[in-house]
């Protein structure tokens, strides 16, 4: 994973050995930031994989994910559970980008 602009609100950057992870308080903020940086001429992202539906975990939680790849080839996985899963699904459908993968 690569890092985004750490000045964004609701963002915390964590570093491990050879990778950086960014944690957002909200999956929609993460998706919007990745997609907007591309619109502003930066190395932004596009949705490269997502599920066409919201899944249920074994515990009965709603789950949804979106994979975003930026222009440098860095991959970002945005996951959401519960009501956030519904919101992330709706937001990703609004963009009209990406491919669908029902295998997860």
Verbal overview:
With 104 residues, the protein is an alpha+beta fold. It has one domain (11-95). Helix content is 25%, strand content 35%. The protein contains 2 helices and 6 strands. A hairpin with a 5-residue loop joins β4 and β5. The model is unreliable at 1-16 (pLDDT under 50).
What class, by secondary structure content?
alpha+beta
Number of helices: 2
Distance between the termini: 20 Å
SS elements, strand count: 6
Q: Beta-sheet strand percentage?
A: 25-35%
Topology order in helix (H) and strand (E) letters:
EEHEEEEH
Shape annotation: globular
What average pLDDT do the residues reach? 74
Task: State the major sheet.
Answer: 4 strands, antiparallel
